[in-house]
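As noted in the main text, all predictions were made from sequence alone. Below is one such record, for Transporting ATPase.
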Amino acid sequence: MIKHHYQQLIQLFEQCFFDELNTRLVAGTDEPYYQPAQCAGESHQIVFAHGFYASALHEIAHWCIAGEQRRQVFDYGYWYEPDGRNTEQQAEFEQVERKPQALEWLFSLCAGVPFQVSVDNLGGIEVDRSAFTKAVQEQLSRYIINGLPPRAEKFARALADYYQQPWPATTITTWNIT
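Prediction:
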């Protein structure tokens, strides 16, 4: 059995995308972010938090969704309201996060590691984690049935191959949830 370490993700990501898209996955310290290259000779960087394996999968998922223009802007130019969101802000957060968390779930399945949605609002309103989990599951089902973003599929297949995992079934009953 292969032990999971974020360095494996860094290597797989580089094999999949560095030559074509000049992008590296980097273990950071605090908050995760995306930094486009600032000048010729530099690479774009997806920085994940504290060397956490799950953080790396989550940040890769955001990158796989971001289009060409968004990948030229710090943190893709996305809206983010920190912990302590009200009801409307949390609803917007969940709407924006549904797709990347579905891809993170796919990556987790392909790596053979547990997945848990992140509502990312510990100091805010009471959040219906079950409803958000269901929304993320439904999005993942749609992706698997209707097709994945190309970079997401390429990375997911590299994960499944490396970790010797089967391609996820279209039924959510077989998915590893924690």
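The radius of gyration is 16 Å. The chain has a mean pLDDT of 90. These features were considered when defining construct boundaries for the mutagenesis experiments described in Section 2.9.
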